[in-house]
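Subject: Peptide/nickel transport system substrate-binding protein

B.,
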Amino acid sequence: MKPLKAAAAALTAVALSLGTVACSGNGDGADENPSTDYFGYQLPVPLVTSNAATNLGDSLKMQRLSGRVFPGPFVPGPSGQMIPNTDLVTTQVLPGANRKVEYTLTEQAKFSDGVPVTCDDYQLAFTAGKNPAIFSSHMPQFDAVESIECTPGSKKFTIKYVEKAGGRWRELFGAGTVLPAHAIAKKIGLETAALTGALQASDYEVMARAADVWRFGYALDKFDPALQVSFGPYKIQAVGKDGEVTLVANDAYYGQAPQIDTIVVWPGSADTADLVSKGALKVGDISDPKPAWFDPNAEGNPYKVETVVGEMTDTLVFADGGAWADKEMRAAVSKCIDPKAVAAASSKVAGVEVPVTPVRVLPHNDPLARRLGDIANPHLNVDIEGARAAAGTELRVGYSVADPRYAAMVEAMRVSCEPAGISIKDVTGKGKTRGDLVSPDVLDEVMGTVTPGTGSIDAYLGAVAPMREYDSSDSRSGELRALRGEERRLWDELPSIPLSAQPRTFVIDKSMEQVVPYTGPVGIGWNMDRWRFAAAAPSSAQKPKKTKD
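Prediction pasted inline below.
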């Protein structure tokens, strides 16, 4: 029996958290070949879920793992393009005060278990996006969506936007966010059509049961093959003892088959130097800009390591509950946080100069961002006297994983706000996510009681993709007025403070072709199914790893 097929049914789950991985045996019949025998791709975070739409998944940007497992209608590219995924779906925009978008799924689009992809899957994503309190979801583009028209089992559906919205409709249903409704329905004992009907009727009991599976069922420490069915070029085959995730070609995929049929994705906790020494690392999106194992001048060095200024914006996101839900408190602390000092701290650790980025609604490298400067740039100034309105308070900040660069950024905030009497404290520990933000108090109008909000951080520090985070107009110059209005509103309401561009460090084996760095949420793996080894025979140090069948 060939390696991966021997492991398919027998590999046991791995216990892992944001900061640690607990090992367990592979079980009888497990793959006898170590994961390092195969093509390796490393990410800088723990691989905890394949659902990129939860607060957890978004915070860790898990679409870097599942972007080609649960692909979107459009594939984001490194030059800002949105490439139509016509193997999956075609779209048509209908004019009117309320923009409508018609989606037609291809007849051939199906999951790896043979079940067709239908509008039921998108109805589930819509419901999750519109009900973040129930699903613990983070899909802000759904704020601008009014409704979805879906007949259960249909290959067609229509999205309707609120008036004058929908300029960023291509960002909807992004990579890693549309999950198999039929698999979730089965888990809660329903037919798919019954689940869809209940979601459309806002049946809270069914919605809550579905949300529990949607939120927790895709956790990789409890790998469930019945849920992890794919409609992309890759599917998740197994989770290894060190938290590594094995992707294999999805034979049911209608589009072009992947060039490399097996990719082992390694978590940030894996020893990169060990992967290098075993010849396992071929592509990496890593957090260390100057890895000790890399010597560019070494004879036969097979790697290119490059740190670049990315398109996402490192942003301080405030909680909706607790003291810092107060707009006046946010305004006060924003006056002592010095974005220039924060950017300098980030740059020092990254080894590349990252620009201050005070604009929210556009990437910093968008030419139109300059035309919002008169709105955003005044907020770069520090006003200690104004910040003293929040003197005596504490702002607890967390980020996804222990990271020297983010630690330096929080320290810069602490130093600049200390004279104003505001204490900024790094409480990251083993890792925090958007889900750890303090939630609002809940009022029971019948009983007249208030349940305090939960959460352990007042602000989350992480990278934000402007085009998918804000339900604003698109970046066309004709929409400049709307963009300016949205930027002005965001600075007034202060849900967040944009700080500086996010740097990214990539590792690429020189024997690889078609590996094109992309600094958006999906990362360098945006086209991983097109990765391939160069036609010329690689040296012994660069030989392709075995592939699992």
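Confidence is low (pLDDT under 50) at residues 1-30, 537-549.

T.
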